[in-house]
Structure formats: structure tokens, C-alpha cells
Amino acid sequence: MSKIILTTLNARYLHSAFGLRYLYANLGNLQVQASVQEFTIHETPINIAETLLAEKPSIIGISVYIWNIIEVTELVGLLKQISPEVVIVLGGPEVSHPPDLPAVCELVDYVVTGAGEVSFVTLCQQLLSGQKPLNKIVTGVTMPLDQLKLPYEYYSEEDIANRITYVEASRGCPFKCEFCLSALDKTAKPFELGAFLEEMDLLYKRGARNFKFIDRTFNLKVKTSVAILEFFLERMDEDLYLHFEVIPDNLPDALKVMLERFPPNRLQFEIGVQTFDPVIQTLISRRQDNEKTKENLRWLRENTGAHLHTDLIFGLPGDSLENFALSFDQLAALKPQEIQLGILKRLRGAPLNRHIDEYQLRYNPSPPYNILSTRDIDFQTMQRVNRLARYWDMIANSGRFTTTLPLILGDQPFWRFMKLSDTLFKEAGSTWKIALKRLFGLVYQVMLNELDVLESDAQQVLQLDFQRAGFKGSMVFSQAEKVEKGIKKGTPNKRQNTHQQTAD
After folding, report:
1. Number of domains forming the structure of the chain
2. Residue among 248, 256, 257, 208 at smallest CA distance from 232
3. Cβ-Cβ contacts under 8 Å for 318 (sequence gap 6 or more)
4. 241, 195 in Cβ contact below 8 A?
5. B12-binding domain location, by residue (predicted)?
């Protein structure tokens, strides 16, 4: 039985709660009374409540994020109905910026804002000794990094075998991009390199091979970055995979030399471009050398085997559909493997919120608080780009249409793909649950009827991608027509057929 349970709902089982492990590692003498329990947003809150309360805890600490706030709210409501005596403490980015707090904070006993390694353990000590702190909002206290107990030993064997291993060589960010909560940081601070690499070595020896660095600016200090890459290069095997978030316009020669030494498909770089518009960059306090960014992306694509996951944001203040298309086309010309089309979201505490009135930023009141319209982008246009982002992920980012994509994009990537997106939605009526074989047929029809691609050219490239997708035989282009919607009257569904076969 655990008096203290640290828990959260991850977006997927593959993910692991790095922050909870930090809290657990720094609980001191309370650690023997504590446990970490992770769930996913796909599990039912009532079953999660049953599992948590079976431990008969005195305190439940829950990490709250933009992606789990709905499920956490339902879970907290159940916990307070079933066992109101259990003290519930919330922490995490979604509850760290009072007075801008979600409604669930009204239901709980305490909220820890910001860093929790010191404040949470102090709160637990008070509660377990019979004290009742007067303030419901507990301000997080930042502990010097060299005083933090690192959490890596608390990845279980199951975690190492089945989940991403999150690690950090530094904490914070020196940049002030207003759409990001890291803009609130004063600077980036590194962990002591020797101690960090010792922990990485222990993880590697335990079998960890999927390392995701959560540093906001991995390549900020090049000497440190090179040392970390050298460490992993010495241990390179066919299973090792490293993910880094990097500054796009900072790629000095020392780093290039190191990156060229890595074998293909062992590195993934998450590269936030966001916009190429210098006026918008100035407006949102983003420092970025656009020409250097393009030069670096081009060099990475041509000289390394790294997978480039790049980001653009639609809906920034001052942006328009036509202007966004310019940024998209410039990035598409650099041919990164992925372009993540992010729709602007309202993050609690983000400095970007100062622009809400002037630029008429209208956000969804429900999570994930996505932008619905702005002064320069109406709701219908926002919906079109939302659909485009989904289809882009299905067709371009998936890698299933690699041969076909250049023919789709032509010399006007954004507008041609927008035409594809609009037509796909008209024909399919959805951006979800489109069978891959049907998607091939729909793309074929759009290429012929809307994008003016020659039939022979379309068939040639689609056939290659069709086979690469694992389908046997040839794509039957004569049958690649619009699929009738609905079901025929009087036709039993699959379940009815099964019952009938059993009866027979």
C-alpha cells in the first residue's frame, strides 16, 4: 500500500511520465511510502479511480497537461465522490499559471505550480504529519540542478523494453518565442555532463535504445552536444535511436563533422521553423536567421541520414492563409521528411496571450484550446487548414506516397495540396478512418480531375507507392472511383451476419 501515489494519464502507452519520476526520485525519506502509477487517456477514468483507491492512499498527485485535462477532470470528480478524504494535489503545465486555471482546480485540495521537486515533498511532509497548509496554491521552488537526484534508475525493465526513454542534458531555454512556455525561462542550464553520461551509460547497459532528449535547445552549447553525440556513436548498434530538438540556425562545423559520422536512420531532429515571415517573427519575439535555417536544413538533408521533423504553426497573430502558404512552400522546397502543420493553441501563461485582443485571437474554450479564427483568418479557412494538416499527415508525413508527392505538389505545393485536401474531404466526408487502399484511389482521381496530372504519370508513381505500402498485385486504376457512401437497404451488418452463421 502506498500513502502517496504519483500518477498521470499519458497520451499513449509508448510515452512515459518523466516528471513523475523526478518527483519520486526527490521524495527523500517519503519515497518508501510512495509509488508511481501511469495510465493512458484511452483508459476509462472509473477504472483508473478503482486502481488508485485500491492502494488506500492518503495523497494522490496528478500531473496535468493540455492533452489529458479532460480525462483528469473526470477522474478527479470520481475520486472526490468516492473517497473525499483522499488529498488530491495537481501539478504540471496546465495548472501552473494562476489565476488562469482550469475548473478542475476547484475540486482538488492543492495545486503546485511550476517545479515540484521541493514544494511537493514539503507539502506531503506537512500533510502526513497532520498539518494543513493554509494556501491551496503552492508555488514551486526551483532547485539547483546539481542538487537534484536524477530519475533514470526509476525506469523499469518494462519501460526500457516498451517505452520511449526521456532524458534531459539541460533544462530551460534562452529564447523568448511567445507561443511557447519556455519563453518564461530565464536561460538554459546544463546538467553536469559527467554525471549525465554516467546515467546514460547505465540506461544503455540495461537495454535502453530509444532516447528522446527533451532539451529545448540541444545544439545550443556545441561542445556539450558533440560530447553527447560522441558518447552514443561509440555505442552505436542497429537498435539505437536518438531524438533531439535543435535550433535551426545553429549548425557549426564541429557539429556537422559529428553528424556526418552517424549511420542513416539513427537520428531524428525536431526543428521548429514555425514561420519564415520576419515581421511575425519580430511580433512574437522569435529570433531566427531564415537564410541560415534554410542552409542548415538543406545541408542536413543532403549530407546526413537524419530524419528531419520540421514544424510550422498556422494561426499566429498577423498571419494569413496567403502568407502561411509562402512559409509552407519555402519549407517544402527543402524536402524534410516531415512537416508538422501545427494549429496554434492557447497555452496558459504563454506571453503570446498579450496579442489576443489586438489580433482577435479566438480559441476553442475546450482542450486543446486550438485557435478558431483570428483578425486575418476566418473560421472556415481555419477548418480547411485543419483538414489539410490531417491529410498532409496521412499522405506526406506517413511516407506512403513518397514517389507520388512531388507530382501532387508541383511548383505550388501549398495551393495544390489545399486543392487535394478540399476535394478529398468533399469525396470522403471525413479526415479519419479512410482505408489506405481507398485513399490511393481517391488521390488518383484528384490528380487526374483537379491537379491536371497526366494519367500515365499518375499511374506510374501511384503503382510504385502502392507496392511499397505492402499491397499485393497491381493497383486497379479502372476501379479507383468514388466509393458510394452508406449501406444498401436490407443488408445485414457484420455482427448480424455472425449471429446468422452461428444459428445456421
Report:
1. 3
2. 208
3. 277, 279, 280, 283, 359, 376
4. no
5. 2-134
> Is residue 99 helix, strand or coil?
coil
- The residue range of the domain holding 320 is 155-377
Specify if 383 maps to a domain: no
> Which CATH number fits the domain that encloses residue 250?
3.80.30.20
Q: Specify whether the CB–CB gap between 200 and 192 falls below 8 A.
A: no
Positive/negative CA dihedral, 193, 197, 199, 200: positive
Do β-strands 59-63 and 4-10 pair in parallel, antiparallel, or remain unpaired? parallel
Same domain, 191 and 117: no
Compute how many other C-beta atoms are within 10 angstroms of the C-beta atom of residue 265. Answer: 11
d(CA 178, CA 349): 10
- 342: β partners: 313
pLDDT attached to residue 482: 46
Residue 390 belongs to some domain of the structure: no
Residue 394 is given by DSSP the state I
Position 487 scores a pLDDT of: 39
The distance from CA 132 to its chain's CA centroid, rounded to whole angstroms, is 37
The answer to whether residues 292 and 428 belong to one domain is no
Distance separating alpha carbons of residues 281 and 117, to the nearest angstrom: 35
385, 342 Cβ separation under 8 angstroms: no
Residues 484-496 pLDDT 10s: 444 344 555 555 5
Q: pLDDT tens-digit profile of 347-401? A: 999 999 999 999 999 999 999 999 999 999 999 999 999 999 999 999 999 999 9
Q: Is 350 among the domain residues?
A: yes
217/168 same-domain check: yes
Shared domain for 179 and 122, answered yes or no, is no
